[in-house]
Amino acid sequence: MRRGTWGTSAVGAVALVSLLSACSPSAPVPRATGGEHAASSAPAPTAVAGVPVRRATPPAIADPDPTPIRLDIPSIDASLPIRPVGVQRDGSMEIPRDPAVAGWYRYGPAPGAAEGSAVLAAHVDSRVLGIGPLARLREMGPGQRIRVRDDAGHATTFTIASVEYIPRATLPVDTLFARAGKPTLVIITCGGSFDEATRSYSDNVVAVAHPEG
């Protein structure tokens, strides 16, 4: 299990809570129904890879970059469509039900933005839909490449700086969702041991990458 050092950067005035509170293959998860600039009105699921980031709907950043549409990670044979997601009523980041689809936190920077952290997250698996492509995220190491394509036809290549297992209770959420600072891509899924009683994983697998050049 690798550990890393995180910098400090404020996401905003709204309080943050723990990240990826659960990531369970135990039950189907209803698809989110939130609007483009509002938190989802759907009830919060009880066994889902939610990424709680804010207690209230955050404002979208001004002049957003083109929307990311596909994540490609050749070294682990992973290719996922990307869907913009928002915030559920419980303050957690929406996660697509299908582990083969990644969610992009649309209230923050887009991959390839000039500054700040772009966050992508996906389920590691699903009882109904099986194991997702990011189940192999933990196999990646520094120097390996990730490519994100957007709806304007542009592709940005990132180089992995670190891949870590981090206990859910100790994730540096303010840094992961930073809107300022060095341009960064953060990819999150679940990992570690699975607790049958709570139907959740103990850790998050967090890959941090920076644009080439």
Helix content: under 10%
Helix/strand order, N-terminal first = EEEEEEEEEEHEE
Give the termini distance in whole angstroms.
29 Å
- β-strand percent reads 25-35%
The backbone outline, from C-alpha atoms, is: globular
Largest sheet: 8 strands, mixed, barrel
Give the neighbour order of strands across the main sheet. 2-3-5-6-11-12-10-9
Structural class: mainly beta
CATH architecture: Beta Barrel
Count of spatially separate domains: 1
Give the beta-strand count.
12
Structural write-up:
By secondary structure, the protein is mainly β. The longest helix is centred in the last third of the chain and has 4 residues, at 173-176. The chain has one domain (51-56, 67-211): Beta Barrel (Sortase, Chain: A). It is built from one helix and twelve strands. The chain is 2% helix and 35% strand. Strand 9 (145-150) and strand 10 form a beta hairpin. It is globular.
Please summarize what this structure is:
This protein has 1 helix and 12 strands.
Question: How are the SSEs placed, and which strands pair?
Answer:
Blueprint: E1 51-52, E2 68-73, E3 78-85, E4 92-93, E5 102-105, E6 117-121, E7 125-126, E8 130-131, E9 145-150, E10 155-167, H1 173-176, E11 184-195, E12 200-211
Parallel strand pairs: 3-5, 6-11
Antiparallel strand pairs: 1-4, 2-3, 2-9, 5-6, 7-8, 9-10, 10-12, 11-12
Task: For the structure shown, list the relevant keywords.
mainly beta; Sortase, Chain: A; 8-stranded mixed β-barrel; 1 helix; 12 strands; globular; disordered N terminus
